[in-house]
Amino acid sequence: MVIEIRYLEVSAAGLTAADALLREAALQAAGRAYAPYSGFQVGAAALLENGEVVTGCNQENAASPSGLCAERVALSYAGARYPGVPVSALAIIAMSGGDVRPHIAPCGACCQVMLEMEQRGGKPMRILLCGKDTVRILPSVSALLPFSFTENDMEL
Ligand code: THU
Hints:
By secondary structure, this protein is an alpha+beta fold. It has helices at residues 17-30, 70-81, 108-121; strands spanning 8-11, 40-48, 53-57, 87-96, 99-100, 126-130, 134-138.
């Protein structure tokens, strides 16, 4: 058995206007991160199907497990502010020392939360992994987490 993951890698300058705006929103959010312990600032911007853009950034804590990643901050805010509205795209970007980092992929816990949000919405959530000059575009969260635990696994 083989699992293939297909994604596009495009130049940041060549993004569609909507994707460029989402990348910029994620970048602005990264600048607002509370990351005094790692110095690693992450921003996430979710485009909702109603056209709203909701952002999040990592929120660290001296008791480190109490902190939260940018992706989960953004998606939790989206769910709280616009319950039931599908997320059609999520842009993620990281900075350290004032520089944009090469593309990062969300951690496993974030992938799990992103997956459930995608399934709740019933539509693919495009993922934009943003670097300085290029952006990797994945068609859905399931591309990041092809084997996953979902509510279906709990059905008897
Ligand atoms: N972080 C995120 O916010 N998102 C990711 O995708 C990876 C890691 C945060 C968590 C922590 O505040 C810092 O980056 C270093 O791990």
